Amino acid sequence: MTRSVRIPADVDREDRILAGFTARQVVAMAVTGLVLYGGWLATRAVLPVVAYLVMAAPIAAAVVLLVVVTRDGITLDRLLLAALRQRLSPRRRVAAETPAPVPEWLSAFADQADDVTLGGLQLPARAVSEAGVIDLGRDGLALVAACSTVNFALRTPAEQEALAAGFGRYLHSLTAGVQILVRAQRLDLTSHIDDLRHRAASLPHPALEDAALDHADYLHHLTEQAELLRRQILLVVREPVGSASTDVLSRTRRRHRENTEDREPSAGARRAAASRLVRRMQEAIELLAPAGIEATPLDAGQATAVLAAATNPDSPVPPSPKMAGAHEVITTRPDWDLSAEEDTP
After folding, report:
1. pTM of the full structure
2. What is the 8-class DSSP label of residue 106?
């Protein structure tokens, strides 16, 4: 006999077992109460009850605050443990699992960072294929597409309903998890300004030339007055390595079994997952087109640049295939160095 079961919207939310508290919160408060009670039994012969309550009340209140008060949906005790783990972890991480020895001519600079421990940087992405498919190891494969935007506010009510219905059809078609990522990046208009000034003289009318130069001056003034940002919207489609079953429970059990057995998926399973991933991306492109959203899959170079920018978002140097690898020692000047520095005495 079958019966319907209500599934909460937040499937990751912990179950509440007693008075609105989770099992972890109940255990933490119960253990604290038992410890304080044991301390009272051990000291009641020599310490008055009032004095013991004055000592125990702050401890009990601190534990309750740690396990009950949340910040961004995370309790304070977990934030404290995360801060402690971050404090004890290596302060500098390198891409290589085993850092290469420092050359002798760089030892003087390396000695300045002897107090900084090194550790291997474990990235979830292992490799990027020529088609832009990102290998996530046992976590499966991923494919990234850049999406265009739609000016929803300027559309008529009928057009807004049509766009929402088109996007809703894509959401209803999903059989596996996807991620919609909105990233804010610094916008460099230097090349655009130089191009405007360079092409202004070739315009057919002097008024157009003046307008182009004025616009270039305006953009230059804008870059000096504020930090310009641009938004990049990415659609990330992930596919586990295994059968194409859509049962969430079976996928969870299979992922747990693969992790516990500690074995890598076969090459055939990865090829099948990559085929399913490409097919899902093509379906997303077709279903998002009626909603006015143009999704363009990223190739290997673009996907690598996105991953590099995500791991180092504040770098002033844009990611490039010419960048040195993790095991390479840089011995030459980079291409982006200013030539004026060579002439400086």
Report:
1. 0.57
2. G
